[in-house]
Amino acid sequence: MKCELSSSCHTFVAVEKFPTSQQLICDMFKLRRLTTLASTIKYIFLVPVFLFSTASFAQDGKAIFTANCASCHALDKKLTGPALRGVEDRWSGDRARIHAWVHNPPGFMKTDPYTESLHKEYGIVMTAFPTLADKDIDAILDYVKSAPLPGGGPKDINPVEEDNSDMTLLFGVITLILAIVAFTLLYVNANLKKMADDKEGMPAVEPIAFWRNKTYITVFTLVIFLIGGYLITEGAVGLGRQQKYEPKQPIFFSHKVHPGVNQINCQYCHIGVYQGKQATIPSVNICMNCHMAINEYKGTTKLITAEGREVNGTAEIQKLYKYAGYEPGKPWDASKAQPIEWVRIHNLPDHVYFNHAQHVNAGKVQCQTCHGEVTKYNEMFQFAPLSMGWCLNCHRTTKVQFDNNGFYSMYEKYKEDIKNHRMDSVVVKDIGGAECQKCHY
Ligand code: HEC
Ligand code: HEC
Ligand code: HEC
Ligand code: HEC
Ligand code: HEC
Ligand code: HEC
C-alpha cells in the first residue's frame, strides 16, 4: 500500500512487514503531523496575531477620533453632536462628502439641507478641521464602523475607552479554548505514540508523571513568569492613575450651573490657564465677586450627586459664606476668609511637566478635549487617563496650527515646506513633542 507520508515517516519501512497495520500507522502519522507541539503552538499564535492585525487599523482611527472628535461625539450617545454610529448610512456611504463636511462645516451647510437641519437640532456649528487629512477621516469612519457595541452601564461616560475590555475578554476566551485543545492534542499524541511503540514491539518507556516532566515544568514556569511580570508592570505603571476619579468636595459646586447654564468663562475662575502652567483653582474672593449678590439658588437645573441624591443649592451657597466669613446684609471683610479645601482631582506625577498655556494658547487645544464636556458635569471628575500613552497619542496625531499663530514664527522652514507641498502638515511630534526631556524633568 501507499502512504503519502512515507517519505517523512522514517519508521514506515519497519512496519512494511506487517501489512494490516500499515493503514493504521499511516493514519497515525497523519494525525501526529497535525498534533506535533510545533504546529499546535503555531496555531495558538496565529489566531490572535490575525485578530490583532485587523484590530490595529481601527485603533489608529480610534486615537484620531479620541483626540479630535470625542469631545463632541460618542458612538452611541448624543453629546454636543450626534451619535456617530451608522453615520455612513445616513450619508449614503459617500465619504467624499463627509470629508468636505469635516473640513468646512459652515460652508458645507449652506448648500446642504440635511446638515442645516442637524444644525437646527444641535444649535451649534461643528468645529472645522481644515487640515485633517482624508485618510485620517477615513480611519475615523473605519473605526466608527468596526467599533464593538458598548456593554457599559449608565456610568459609561466615555464609551470610546470601553471597548478594550471586550477585546481582552475575547482574546482570553480564545486563549483558554486553544490551551484546552492543545492539552487534549498533546494527550492524544502521547497515547498514539505509546500505541505505535506497542505495535512496533518497542519496549514502552515508563511515562514520567507530568509534574516531574522537565518540558512541562519549563513551560509552566515560563508562563507564570510572563503573566506575573505583565501583571506587576501593569500594576506599577497604573499606580497613582485615577481616571474617572470623582471625590466629594467641601461645597457642591456645579460646573453645569456655572460655565454651563450661566456661561461663565472658564478663565474667569481658572485664571492661570491661558498664561501659565497651572490653570489654578479660584479663591474665595473670586466666588464672592458674584455671591455677595447671589445668595440663593433658584436655577431649574437639578443638582444631583453621583449617588443620585438631590442637593439644596442655597444651603451650599451658605457653606461658601461660612468659608468667606460673610453674613448677608453686613459689609464683608475679605481678610476673614478661610480657603476652601477643594480635593485635587487631576494630579500628574512630579517627574512630568505639563503646561496649560502651551496647550490652550499656543496649541489651541480645547479644554473639552482633555477634560470632557465640563459644562454638563454637576460634579467634576477626571475625564482623561493622564497616562504617557495618552499624551503621546495626541502629539502623534494633532497637527500644529500654524495659521495666524505668532507662537510659531520660529518654524519658518516648516511653513515653507507646507506652502511648497513638500509636507502635508506638521504634527506636535515633529516639533519635539515626543522627546523625553520635553515632558520629564
Ligand atoms: C465642537 C464639537 C464637535 C467636534 C469637535 C466635532 N463635531 Fe462633528 N458634529 C458636531 C455637531 C454639533 C454636529 C451636528 C451638525 C451641526 O450642528 O453642525 C456634528 C455632525 C457631524 C457629522 C454628521 C453626523 C450625522 O449624523 O450625519 C459627522 C460625520 C461629524 N460630525 C464628524 C465629525 C468628526 C469626524 C469629527 C472629528 C474630526 C467631529 N465631527 C468633531 C459637533 C462636533
Ligand atoms: C465659577 C468658577 C468656575 C468656572 C467658571 C469654571 N470652573 Fe472649573 N473649577 C472651579 C472650582 C471651584 C473647582 C474645584 C472644585 C471641583 O473640582 O469641582 C474647579 C475644578 C475644575 C477642574 C478639576 C480640577 C482638579 O482638581 O483637578 C477642571 C478640569 C475644571 N474645573 C475645568 C473647567 C473648565 C474646562 C471650565 C470652563 C468650561 C471651568 N472649569 C469653569 C470653578 C470654576
Ligand atoms: C461669575 C459669577 C459667579 C462666580 C464667580 C461664582 N458663582 Fe456660584 N453661582 C453663580 C450663579 C449665576 C449661580 C446660579 C444662581 C441661580 O441659578 O439661582 C451660582 C450658583 C452657585 C451655587 C448653587 C448651585 C451649585 O453649583 O451647587 C453654589 C454652591 C455656588 N454658586 C458656589 C460658588 C463657588 C464656591 C464659587 C467660587 C469657586 C462660585 N460659586 C463662583 C455665579 C457665580
Ligand atoms: C492637553 C490637555 C489639556 C487641556 C487642553 C486642558 N487641560 Fe487642564 N489639565 C490637564 C492636565 C494633564 C492636568 C493635570 C496637571 C497636573 O497635575 O500638573 C490638568 C489640570 C487642570 C486643573 C487642575 C490643576 C491646575 O492646573 O490648576 C484645572 C482647573 C484645569 N486643568 C482646567 C483647564 C481649563 C479651564 C482648560 C481650558 C481652558 C484646560 N484645563 C485645558 C490637561 C489639559
Ligand atoms: C489633545 C491633544 C494633547 C494632549 C492630550 C497632550 N498634548 Fe501636549 N501638546 C499638544 C499640542 C497641540 C502641542 C503644541 C503646542 C506647542 O507647540 O507649544 C503640545 C505641546 C506639548 C509640549 C511642548 C512640546 C514642544 O516641543 O515644545 C509639551 C512638553 C507637552 N505638550 C506635554 C504634554 C504632556 C505631559 C501631556 C500629557 C499629560 C500632553 N502634552 C498631552 C497637544 C496635546
Ligand atoms: C508628551 C509627554 C511625554 C513624553 C514625550 C515622554 N513622557 Fe514619559 N511620561 C509622561 C507622563 C504623563 C507620565 C506619567 C504616566 C502615569 O502617571 O502613569 C510618564 C511616565 C514615564 C515613566 C514612568 C512609568 C510610567 O509609565 O508611569 C517613565 C519611565 C517614562 N515616562 C519615560 C519616558 C521616556 C524614556 C521618554 C522618551 C522616549 C518619555 N517618557 C517621553 C509623559 C511623557
Features:
single chain; 441 residues; mainly alpha; Cytochrome Bc1 Complex, Chain D, domain 2; 51% helix; extended; disordered N terminus; binds heme C
Structural write-up:
This protein is mostly helical and 441 residues long. The chain folds into three domains: 44-164, Cytochrome c-like domain (Cytochrome Bc1 Complex, Chain D, domain 2), CATH 1.10.760; 240-386, no CATH class; 387-441, no CATH class. It contains 19 helices and no strands. The chain has helices spanning 12-15, 20-35, 37-68, 87-90, 95-103, 105-111, 113-122, 134-146, 159-199, 214-238, 256-261, 266-269, 284-291, 313-324, 356-362, 367-371, 388-397, 412-419, 436-439. The longest helix has 41 residues, at 159-199. The protein starts with 11 loop residues before the first helix and ends with a helix. One heme C binds next to helix 17 and helix 19.
Brief write-up:
With 441 residues, the chain is mostly helical. It has 19 helices and no strands. The chain has helices at residues 12-15, 20-35, 37-68, 87-90, 95-103, 105-111, 113-122, 134-146, 159-199, 214-238, 256-261, 266-269, 284-291, 313-324, 356-362, 367-371, 388-397, 412-419, 436-439.
Write the layout of secondary structure elements.
Elements: H1 12-15, H2 20-35, H3 37-68, H4 87-90, H5 95-103, H6 105-111, H7 113-122, H8 134-146, H9 159-199, H10 214-238, H11 256-261, H12 266-269, H13 284-291, H14 313-324, H15 356-362, H16 367-371, H17 388-397, H18 412-419, H19 436-439
Helix pairs in contact: 2-9, 3-8, 3-9, 5-6, 6-7, 13-14
Bound molecules: heme C (6 copies).
